[in-house]
Amino acid sequence: MTIMYELNNISYRYPTSDSPVLQDISVKLEKGKLYGVIGNNGSGKTTLCHLLRGFVPHFYKGEVNGQILLEGASMLEMELGDLAPKVGYMFQNPFIQVSGVKETVFEEIAFGLENLGISEEKIVPSVNHVLKQVKIDHLRDKNPFELSGGQRQRVALASIIVMDPDILIMDEPTSQLDPQGTEDIFEIITMLKEIGKTIILVEHKMDFILECADHILVMKDGKVVMEGETEAVFSNPEYLSLNIAVPSVADVYFDLQKRGVALTRFPRTKQALLAELVEMTRKDGMG
Ligand SMILES: Nc1ncnc2c1ncn2[C@@H]1O[C@H](COP(=O)(O)OP(=O)(O)O)[C@@H](O)[C@H]1O
Ligand SMILES: [Mg+2]
Fold this sequence. Notes:
2 domains; binds adenosine-5'-diphosphate; AAA+_ATPase; ATP-binding
C-alpha cells in the first residue's frame, strides 16, 4: 500500500469567507484507488479538489492550516506548474476548462502536451487515440466554443487523459450528460482505475459511485464526516441520517431489512441485488 496524499488536520478558508470551508480534515489517500467524494451542495467537495490540485492555496490564496503531503512532500511548498503533469483536473464547470486559444477540439486536446514541449509526431497519435477512447472523434474539427455542455465535458476529460497524469481529479464529470453519456464516462473512469490511476471523483450519481468507487469520503459542512470502503459506508445505517442521496440498490436493501428480509450480502449493482433475491426465493421454495 502506497500513500499518495496525506492530509493532517487541514483547515482552510477563502480570503473572502468568514468561516472555514474545510475543517480539520485528516485522511490518507492510497495510490491506485478510486475515491468517491460525496456530500450536499456547499459541503466543500470542490474546495477539497482545489486543495488536492494545489489551487488552494496557491491560486485562491487564503490560509491553510495543517499539513498536506503528496508522496511525502509538502504540497504547500510546491509550485502549481510542477503539479500540472502529475495531477489532471477536470473542473465542475466545463465552460471554464476551454483554453480559449485553440480553434479545434483536436488542437485543444493537444494543447497540454504542446506546453510540455512534446514533439508533434508524438502528439498526433496520442490525441487520435484519446479522441476515439472518449468517443469524440467526430468533433475533432469543431470549435471548442461551439460545443454543448456534455461535449465540453468529454473534451475536458480527453484533455486530461492525454496527459497521462498519475492522479485524476474529476469534479462532477457527468453533470451535463444524459444516461448514455454518463455510462460512457464511467466506462472510461473504470478503465483508468484498471490501469492504476489514483482517482478522486466528486459525483452525485450514487449508483455509479457504489458500483465503481473503492473508498468513499462523505463531506458535510467542510468536514469529512464519514469515510471508509464503499460497501461499508453505504451499508452503514448512520449514512441514512446524513440526508445525502442513497444509491437505489441500498434503498432497496434497507427497505427489505425493514420488512424483515435480510440479504446475506450488500449488493453493489442492480444485477447483484437481483441475484441475491433470486437465490433467496429459490432457498425459500425448497423450504
Ligand atoms: N472562491 C470562493 N471564495 C469564497 N468562498 C467560496 C469560494 N468557493 C466556494 N466557496 C464557499 O465554500 C463553501 C464550499 O463550497 P464548495 O467547495 O464549492 O462546495 P461543493 O463543491 O461541495 O458544493 C461554500 O460555502 C461556498 O460558498
Ligand atoms: Mg462543487
